[in-house]
Give the backbone structure.
Amino acid sequence: MTIFSMLFYILIYFPYFLAGNNFISFLKAQKWIVHHYLDSWRVSNIKTIYGSIFIYFLTGFNKGWYEGAIWERIPEWTIFWPVYILIFFIQLK
């Protein structure tokens, strides 16, 4: 499984290498991604609601990440979303 994951990861970046980038620039890009991810958590003042993805999928409400955000109804949400999630988890058995 690990070899498949690594090959898939490299396959995703294949166009990056076709554009003329080399392995060193690839490593620099990966370093920037990791740095950006870690830095965004450090300076973030976002009040995270853990598990909010389930609220989003089951009820169709989402709270933005910006300051003063309110719960907003997602217009694309339908009653089928919770059904799809349920079917997905049933298939995992």
